[in-house]
């Protein structure tokens, strides 16, 4: 009955076109041309469930964590996000961006961070992707609308409410990935309920029909990656009402269908995933010793061969062993850029958000994770995208346990 209720609620929302809050548009634009002139959003609904799972005590060999604690967000600001500022809580040079998004395309000094205009609303457990000349941000807790940031339009003022095919439905912790023209999401949770539905958001479509595509079980906190070669959203691990999932589910958009791929010995959730060539890397995450019990952060690194449907797991004793993370981490973001993997933020073994950014070169003779920089704002449950040679960190939960509207860009 619970699963049926989830389906009915989500199906009603899928395919609805989200309009700008100022007034219903007569024609659907890709994004509001002057989003900075729009009215402030109304107060957001308080989240119903913990954003970052409670964790077990940190093991003695855990890396030192950032100060503060991560708790369920209990309240959020009731007004629009403030303009960009400079944070001093992390490493790197931080020139203030102001509100002029020409900085998005302007040259940026190597190994520096730039603070971009904040999201209109703080959000954690969100989805994000680069769609053409825009970064689209969708969903997250607290219940939030779609937002888009132009990567090309000089003088655009901050984030605008996006008109898309598909509808922001207040879902958090969904598996997601960008196809380049669509942001594809599967599962997640809303108001404490796990979600089984798969949804599309498209900036350049007048609207998209409900995909009518469901995962076998309601699922949240899975990792997602898009396989261009097979046209599938790969959904790794995750948490169901009955416990954690192992392995991968392969979601096909055309023809529609879900296939159970190869499993892993250890079930997991809260991992981060990205593709480099034909292989998906699935990093970190958490496990539970018993259903509903405290989570235990993992340092496991997994590699999935999409064509062969096979796994390699760090510590499996096979030749060319994969390098584990230096310390356990879950609820982080992983992007592929320049042939390398970049792991941003996340929560450590003690549940506190971390600022470290790790890099791995899969093509190296002896691949190893290295700390290359620190997020100016430590955070977990964030989203990250790569555009050009730069990497953007978006939203998440900070050390105070509150959702963030902060957007920061790193130039390696």
Number of strands: 29
Which runs of at least 5 residues are low in confidence (pLDDT < 50)?
Answer: 1-101
Q: Which whole number gives the mean pLDDT? A: 75
Structural class by secondary-structure content:
mainly beta
Measured by DSSP, the beta-strand proportion falls in 25-35%
Helix content: under 10%
| N-to-C order of helices and strands | HEEEEEEEEEEEEEEEEEEEEEEEEEEEEE
Rg, rounded, reads: 19 Å
Cα distance spanning the termini: 50 Å
Largest sheet: 5 strands, antiparallel
Number of continuous helical runs? 1
Shape: globular
Description:
- The chain is an all-beta fold.
- It is 3% helix and 32% strand.
- It contains one helix and 29 strands.
- It has one helix spanning 2-13; strands at 112-116, 127-131, 134-138, 147-150, 160-161, 175-178, 183-186, 189-190, 193-201, 214-219, 223-227, 232-236, 239-240, 243-244, 248-253, 256-260, 272-276, 279-283, 286-288, 295-297, 301-305, 310-313, 333-337, 340-344, 356-360, 370-374, 383-387, 390-394, 407-411.
- The strands form eight sheets. Strands 6, 7, 8, 9 and 10 form a five-stranded antiparallel β-sheet that branches. Strands 1-29-28-27 form a four-stranded antiparallel β-sheet, with no helix packed on it.
- β15 and β16 (256-260) form a beta hairpin.
- It is globular and about 50 Å long.
- The model is unreliable at 1-101 (pLDDT under 50).
């Amino acid at each position: 009955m619970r699963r049926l209720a989830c389906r009915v609620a989500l199906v009603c929302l899928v395919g609805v076109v989200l309009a700008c809050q100022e007034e219903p548009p007569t024609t659907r634009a890709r994004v509001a041309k002057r989003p900075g002139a729009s009215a402030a959003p109304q107060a957001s609904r308080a989240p119903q469930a913990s954003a970052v799972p409670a964790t077990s005590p940190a093991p003695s060999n855990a890396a030192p964590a950032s100060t503060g604690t991560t708790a369920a967000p209990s309240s959020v600001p009731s007004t629009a996000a403030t303009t960009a500022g400079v944070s001093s809580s992390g490493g790197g040079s931080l020139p203030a961006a102001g509100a002029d998004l020409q900085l998005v395309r302007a040259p940026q000094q190597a190994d520096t961070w730039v603070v971009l205009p904040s999201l209109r609303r703080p959000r954690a457990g969100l989805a994000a992707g680069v769609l053409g000349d825009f970064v689209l941000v969708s969903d997250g807790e607290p219940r939030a609308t779609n937002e888009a940031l132009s990567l090309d339009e000089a003088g655009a003022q901050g984030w605008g409410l996006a008109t898309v095919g598909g509808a922001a439905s207040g879902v958090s912790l969904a598996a997601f990935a960008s196809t380049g023209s669509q942001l594809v999401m599967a599962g997640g949770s809303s108001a404490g309920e796990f979600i089984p539905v798969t949804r599309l958001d498209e900036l350049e479509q007048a609207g998209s029909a409900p995909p009518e595509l469901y995962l076998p079980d309601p699922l949240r906190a899975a990792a997602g990656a898009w396989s261009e070669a097979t046209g599938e959203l790969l959904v790794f691990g995750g948490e169901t009402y009955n416990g954690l999932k192992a392995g991968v589910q392969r979601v096909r958009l055309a023809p529609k269908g879900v296939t159970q791929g190869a499993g892993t010995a250890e079930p997991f959730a809260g991992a981060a995933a990205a593709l480099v060539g034909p292989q998906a890397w699935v990093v970190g995450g958490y496990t539970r010793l018993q259903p509903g019990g405290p989570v235990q952060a993992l340092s496991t690194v997994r590699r999935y061969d999409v064509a062969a449907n096979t796994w390699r797991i760090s510590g499996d004793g096979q030749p060319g062993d994969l390098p584990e993370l230096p310390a356990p981490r879950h609820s982080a973001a992983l992007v592929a850029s320049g042939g390398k993997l970049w792991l941003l933020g996340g929560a450590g073994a003690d549940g506190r958000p971390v600022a470290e950014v790790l890099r791995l070169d899969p093509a190296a003779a002896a691949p190893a994770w290295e700390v290359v920089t620190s997020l100016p704002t430590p955070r977990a449950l964030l989203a990250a995208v790569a555009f050009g040679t730069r990497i953007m960190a978006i939203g998440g939960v900070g050390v105070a346990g509150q959702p963030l509207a902060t957007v920061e860009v790193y130039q390696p």
